[in-house]
Amino acid sequence: MKDLKLEWWTESKNQTITLGMVRGDFGGLVIIPETVFAVGYNNDFVIAKSYPNKEKEIQNRLFNYDKKTGNYLLTEPNDTIYLNSDDKYYQKDGKWYHMSNGWNPPNGLFPYKDSTYYHIIDLRNWDSSKKWNSDNLYRLNSKDEFNKKRIELNVPEKLDFEIVNKELE
Q1: How far apart are CA 163 and CA 130, in angstroms?
Q2: Dihedrals φ, ψ of 68, to 5°?
Q3: Please, which domain of life does this record's source organism belong to (predicted)?
């Protein structure tokens, strides 16, 4: 797959597609973030399905440290359902903040199986000796968008998801 690897650390839910920086090494530049659960490829294309990591997304919104107040700015106040019940919340200048004692995210946020992303990596014009170009990567939010992009890029119909992690699917 032109130095692209399907790999994970510690748990399969961390499965990503990476571009190896040195042949044979683990890790590298993450091309498709967790959680990749299905992949197919040929010499011209890589297709993949993944679930988003809502835990990371919500954590970034919850723990947006505000240097001015010394607390966390709540960009999405509804996210407070994930915080500890003894956290303190307050409003100042029309914005909501909290003083946090941590959080306990529910398991269903990572991987978030209520949403599936579809990916196509176009390898036809990519030279692995050059720097990665994200113009070769397409992330689609629905199966219909994915099928339309397949047609547009001339991805062969016979290319299917051959590697499927049944534990994650």
Answers
A1: 27
A2: -65, -45
A3: Bacteria
CA 43 to each of CA 26, 46, 111, 159: distance values in angstroms, whole numbers, following the listed order: 22, 8, 29, 11
- Residue 96 main-chain phi, psi, to 5 deg: -100, 140
Do residues 168 and 112 lie in contact, with contact meaning Cβ atoms separated by under 8 Å?
no
CA–CA–CA angle 109, 114, 117 (5° rounding): 100
Torsion angle, alpha carbons of 56, 117, 79, 111, to 10: -60
Contacts of 112 (CB under 8 A, 6+ apart): 51, 52, 53, 54, 55
pLDDT per residue of the chain (169 residues) written in tens, 0 to 9: 457 888 888 888 989 998 876 555 566 789 999 999 999 999 999 999 999 999 988 998 888 899 999 999 998 888 888 888 888 889 999 999 988 877 888 889 999 999 999 999 999 988 766 677 788 899 999 999 999 999 999 999 999 999 999 988 8
- 110, 54 contact by CB (below 8 A): yes
3-class secondary-structure state, position 52: coil
- Alpha-helical regions (H) of 63-109: none
What's the predicted TM-score (pTM) here? 0.83
